[in-house]
Amino acid sequence: MVNTAFDRSVARSRNTLSTGTAVDVRSRYVGAWSSGFEVAEPLNDGYRIRRLSDGSVLPDVFTNEDVRAQRHKTGMWWY
Q1: Which residue, 10, 26, 34, 78, is the most exposed by fewest CB within 10 angstroms?
Q2: C-alpha span between 76 and 65 (Å, rounded)
Q3: What's the helix, strand, coil split of the chain in %, to 5?
Q4: pLDDT for 52-65, tens place per residue?
Q5: If phi over 0 gives left and psi between -120 and 50 gives alpha, with beta otherwise, what is residue 31?
């Protein structure tokens, strides 16, 4: 019997963000998180992402590691 609790291949196939969820996307160039996106389509291997500023669906598929539910910065006076 295989324990799938720590199997990364099983964990990667589980998408927890649904269509329309506001997300942050990790930049592939510098690794910083950027806001202003939403899930356009959950896929088995990641997500298709829509840019909110112009409604464009980005051509790449983003992996689960590069997409997270949008985080609001708290405790900072300018947010």
Answers
A1: 78
A2: 26
A3: 10, 40, 50
A4: 999 999 999 999 99
A5: left
- Output the six-digit token pair for 75: 């405790």
What are the structure tokens assigned to 22, written together? 């506001």
Sheet holding 57-62, edge to edge: 57-62, 46-51, 33-43, 22-26, 67-69
Whether 48 contacts 41, CB under 8 Å: yes
Does residue 63 contact residue 25 with C-beta atoms inside 8 Å?
Answer: no
The pTM is what?
Answer: 0.73
- Sign, Cα dihedral of 60, 49, 58, 67: negative
